[in-house]
Amino acid sequence: MTRIEMTVDGVSYDDDVEPRLLLVHYLRERLGKVGTVVGCDTSNCGACTVLVDGKSAKSCTVLAVQADGSEVTTIEGLSTGGALHPVQQAFHENHALQCGFCTPGMIMAVVDLLAENSSPSVEEIKHGIEGNLCRCTGYQNIIKAVQAAASGQAASVGGAQ
Amino acid sequence: MIPAAFDYVRPSSVDEAVQALGGGGDIKLLAGGQSFIPVMRLRLAAPDTVVDLGRVDELRGIREDGDAIVIGAMTTHADVLKNALVREHAELITKATETIADRQVRHRGTFGGALAHADPAGDLPAVALALDAEMVIAGSGGRRTVPAAEFFLDYLTTAVGEDEVLVEVRVPKLGAGWGSHYEKFNRVAQAWSIVGVAAAVQLDGDTIAQARVALTNMSSVPVRASAVEQALTGGPASAEAVEAAAAHANEGTNPTSDLNAKADYRGHLAQVLTKRAVLAAAGRN
Amino acid sequence: MTVTEERPTGEVGRARLRKEDARLITGQTNWTDNISVPGLLHLALLRSPSAHAKITSIDVEAAKARPGVIAVFTGKDFAEEQGSIPCAWTVTPDMVNPGHPSLAVDEVKHAGEAVAVVVARDKSAAQDALEHIDVDYDTLPVVLDMEAAVADGADKVHANTEGNRSYSFVFESGAAGTGGSTDEAFNDAEVVVSRRFIQQRLIPAFMEPRSTVVQPVGEGFTMWTATQIPHILRVMLSLTLGIPEHKMRVIAPDVGGGFGGKLQVTPEEFICALVSRRLGKPVKYTESRSESLMTAHHGRDQIQYIDIAAKRDGTVTGLKVRLLADMGAYLRLLTPVVPVIGAFVFPAIYKFPAYRFQCDGVFTNKAPTDAYRGAGRPEATFGIERIMDELAAELDMDPMELRRKNWITHEEFPFTTVVGMVYDSGNYEAATDKALQMMGWDALRAEQKQRRQSNDPVQLGLGISTFTEMCGLAPSRVVGSLGAAAGGWEQASVRMLPTGMVEVVTGASPHGQGHVTSFSQIVADQLGVPFEHVGVVHGDTSSSHKGLDTYGSRSLVVGGIALVKAAEKVVEKAKRVAAHLLEASEDDLDFKDGSFSVRGTPDSKLSIQEIAFATFSGHNLPDGMEPSLDSDATFDPENFSFPHGTHLCATEVDTETGSVRIRKYVCVDDIGEVINPMIVEGQVHGGLAQGIAQALYEEAVYDEDGNLTTGSFVDYLVPSALDLPYFDTDRTTTAATSNPLGVKGVGEAGTIASTPAVVNAVLDAVRHKGVTDILMPMTPERVWRAIHESSDGGERAAEGSIAYSATSDAEESAL
């Protein structure tokens, strides 16, 4: 067991964990942060994407011990004061989700992208979400949602970091 | 899936890391883990001990050292991408790094990790080879430097010994008149390269004064396309001349056959992509 | 989508944002794997590394001794009680069903089949213990190739069957009396074109891996599971395991996509129930992606031998289809019927006077196949749309002109096809004309010509798919006559709550389609209540007690109509109360915008909410009336619905590398009336992505030993945002005449239509180089080989790519 400290969605935790424990399992099983999900074994699908110290990461490909001392933001920590994050709002308004399983990871990836590039082109958006697979939408409405989030409320995007 | 249990060591210096590697048993270094953690999750690897280099600060960062730039092994791909020194003196690295996996992986995967993992389908080994990079390796007996041409020994095998750590990579600066390009060919965006070509050429007017070409996934190790380089050198940077030179790209390669490509098609791709990479590097595309 | 219709006055037709989104975008979702109950135990399954073998011994003692392990079971432990995974469709009276154990007992028939289950206190302990189970296998010959499997003397998948054929289903229009004799048609044909097409094996690859939790509750059980079919699953669990149906509760919580892949009664669900019953403890199993790709059922996988007969002027005179359809190792819920659905789809929109269809179901040592988005219809649509292009090429005729010459014109509806289906409505001309205009077809043709003349290394091709399909599964009498065990009706209830809110219960079970939103829109209009005041209950057999679930584009066309019928009954009951309270005759009441008013006395009115409260109080109701407005309806359609559309694709083919890029994709779908255009557009987009992926990217590949090479997302290529084109979508509307909403269904249209459009486009780009077919997926290598070797691209190498492949010696990895 290894002792770790982590701030997740603004709350500090310290726990003894097995070194092999994946960050996503720590979030889901130890902290009850089940909004973040696991979709594959090989770091392809991106459903598990969270922000680690403000940068997107696939939490199934990070050991919890690697994130010791980090600040982690999950989909559950994105909205503040009951108001949806602009990216969440844009996903809703543009029908950028269907089954919703990829959505938490997709939204976190987009939050990360817009933090670096507040007005990405369509091509830049596609590159920005290439690590997140969606089986329902064909991505077109996701791209539309990213554009909407960027143009409408770019100033507040990334504020949750 | 969940990795098999292992002991975890997190050194804060290279010396501590080297010391940890002498601990006995099957010990693996973790340098970001974007390739290795999936391998452990699939239980294709089950080390006794994992030594995490993530907190060895001296392995992180990029600096200028005379006629070279020096990239710390634990510098993330994302940090490499943003670095002005790399872009100015070794843009080939920037261009290849842009094609690696996706944003999330580039945030955590590391430059040295990708080289030491030595996946034949990885993009950076060929780039290091094309740029004549030198790898600085630390062990219990001190540090040694291995040129890229001698670094990649076999499939997933490098000159880094079991008790050694890749510390940093020295990349000679490309001088004036050099252009570079990394031509990656894959079937979907985030996939590994089926074939990749790293090319850098120095133009003297319309003539190619020098050329460096290396190939990804055309053998168990990255391959320097020497015959192509010779054919290019001193010739015109024209489409016809480059295509003729690129016809040599297949020489000395030993590609595998898999789902994405049989060996002969890889050989063909190497030629087409070499032509495209060289022309792009020469600004002629 | 540029929808040019007028803004609707009611809820139906409005692009309402989805009610479902609030929890999905904030992570408040209730996936099965999120569920935990006190004392929950975790299962891990040991899966066979061999595709065909006798199990000679299993030693589980070491695994049992591992820390945290509660129990380890093998197939022998459940042999007496596990029964067989049920197959609900007997497509021919003599269909061979060898039975399908959930946990292998003596033999394994495909790689990945479960042979032992570890029960442990946590998931890591369960997975760790798998490595301590020792199984000896005696390998048997592996049957992988369908053509070889049906040859005389072939090795057999099942020792207890005569051969590898499960059934042979035949339809002949001459014999059926629905058309002429096919033999005569071909004897008299001026032109015959014959082709052998391959529909490769696909994997549904829903994003949420399957997961099941079973909790003993009193004398019964509650099962939460990632399924499309909680109701059917409950019946099957009861029938197979002998758990009384009323003591088995099945809940489909939030379900992360299905695409047919969760239209199944799975071995894993049975194993969870068996273990929970044996131990009297709650258990959970969640699959890994590798397990999912390996053992969740696959789709497609057919060899199609197609012959088309025509006159020289292009008039088609006959169609012959023979299919070899890969069942995989076992028959699951709908395995045998999926390819047989093709019998009714192959004639498509064309007026064939004679037609013969034969489908042979073939066993192989691969994972079972079953429904995948479209289920039988994409395969058939591909076959017919490909052969029409081949006929056009043979006749040197424009492929669209050939289609126009043969399709059913809009004046000819209703039209009875050569297979006896009655198409109620459609307008192929309108959809096609609109699509051609959106595409800029003529300009692209001109560019194509120019590129050919200049021998441009990048060639342009244009592809067409003018498709129809059958939705709304299904009229019970029809499916019953075809061997289905169950019917195809759907159930709905509408409850008026005392506060005026409306609670709708549906037997449909959504997993991403947006039922809660679109069903709210339907009921809001029917009852004249606000959209926000309608709630939809689904997916739990204790609250939605009756239903046949969600698949086959049926939820709206069958379930939505049940909802309308139930709402109509509510209005009828409310009218009685209104008449009583308003002291008027029912005949003098109008119901509009949610209120009953007395004709001629507009001030004398009562809202349905007021009536709901009055009924709840029960103080003053008509004599003999029950104090309830709540109503149920079960709707059984009389016919299928027939959406159609025209899909056009322009592809650029890099002849140097074989890379294909979709330059432009246009589709105009006619799905009848639309409840929510935003949701419809989303369904089309997602369907297109999957159909395009079949053409270009996806294939389940097995090596010569029967191991699935594409066992992770590294090698099973689900496309990302960068790999798909922009979809230019629009609609025409020809209302269905078979239901009161005029709807046809949209869930599968994009997938069904798009694959042949892409393939036809690629072939159109390189046909002048002598290429007549390229196998799917049209990988760059195959396209390049087709061009340079004048072939169909040939078989791919079976080895996986190096990254994470089981054959890689990752131990050598340094970092």
Query: DSSP helix count of chain A?
Result: 5
Low-confidence runs of chain B = none
**Model regions low in confidence, pLDDT < 50 over at least 5 residues of chain A:** 154-161
- Biggest interface, chains and residue tallies: A-C, 54 and 56 residues
Beta-strand proportion of chain B: 25-35%
Major sheet: arrangement of strands of chain A: 2-1-5-3-4
Which strands sit side by side, in order, in the main sheet of chain B? 4-5-10-6-7
- Structural Rg of chain B: 19 Å
Helix/strand/pairing class of chain B, anyone? alpha+beta
**What is the overall silhouette of chain A?**
globular
Helix content of chain A: 25-40%
What profile does the largest beta sheet of chain A have? 5 strands, mixed
Distance between the termini of chain A: 30 Å
Radius of gyration of chain A in whole Å, from Cα? 15 Å
Secondary-structure class of chain A: alpha+beta
- Chain oligomer state: heterotrimer
Tell me what you see in this structure.
The complex is a heterotrimer of chains A (161), B (285) and C (815). Chain A has 5 helices and 5 strands; from the N terminus they run ββαβββαααα. With 161 residues, chain A is α+β, with helices and mostly antiparallel strands. Mean pLDDT of chain A is 94; it is low at 154-161. By secondary structure, chain B is of the alpha+beta class. With 815 residues, chain C is α+β, with helices and mostly antiparallel strands. Chain C has 22 helices and 28 strands. In chain C, α18 crosses α19 (608-617) and α20 packs across α21 (749-766). Helices cover 28% and strands 23% of the residues of chain C. Mean pLDDT of chain C is 96; it is low at 1-5 and 806-815. Chains in contact: A-B, A-C, B-C. At the A-C interface, α2, α3, α4 and α5 of A face α1 and α20 of C.
Keywords:
heterotrimer; A: 161 residues; alpha+beta; five-stranded mixed β-sheet; 32% helix; disordered C terminus; C: 815 residues; seven-stranded mixed β-sheet; 28 strands; globular
Describe what is shown at a glance.
The complex is a heterotrimer of chains A (161), B (285) and C (815). Chain B is an alpha+beta fold.
Secondary structure blueprint with pairings:
The complex is a heterotrimer of chains A (161), B (285) and C (815).
Chain A (H helix, E strand, L loop, with lengths): L1 E7 L2 E7 L5 H8 L18 E4 L2 E4 L12 E3 L12 H8 L9 H14 L5 H7 L11 H14 L8
Parallel strand pairs in A: 1-5
Antiparallel strand pairs in A: 1-2, 3-4, 3-5
Chain B lengths: L6 E3 L4 H8 L5 E4 L5 H6 L7 E4 L9 E4 L2 E5 L4 H6 L1 H6 L1 H8 L4 H6 L2 H7 L6 H7 L3 E6 L2 E6 H4 E3 L2 E2 L6 E8 L5 E8 L9 E10 L2 E10 L6 E2 L1 H7 L6 H8 L16 H19 L4
Parallel strand pairs in B: 1-3, 2-3
Antiparallel strand pairs in B: 4-5, 5-10, 6-7, 6-10, 8-9, 11-12, 12-13, 13-14
Helix pairs in contact in B: 10-11, 11-12
Chain C lengths: L20 H4 L16 E7 L5 E7 L1 H4 L4 E6 H4 L28 E2 L5 E7 L2 H8 L3 E6 L6 H4 L15 E8 H4 L5 H6 L3 E12 L8 E7 L2 E6 L4 H12 L6 E4 L15 H13 L3 E4 L2 H7 L3 E12 L5 E13 L8 H4 L14 E9 L13 H19 L3 H8 L8 E2 L5 E2 L4 H12 L1 H13 L4 E11 L7 H6 L8 E7 L5 E5 L8 H13 L6 E4 L17 H28 L6 E4 L2 E4 L2 E7 H10 L13 E5 L8 E11 L5 E11 L6 H20 L30 E5 L17 H18 L13 H10 L26
Parallel strand pairs in C: 1-12, 10-11, 14-15, 20-21, 27-28
Antiparallel strand pairs in C: 1-5, 2-4, 2-6, 3-5, 7-15, 8-13, 9-10, 9-12, 13-14, 16-17, 18-26, 19-20, 19-25, 22-23, 23-24, 26-27
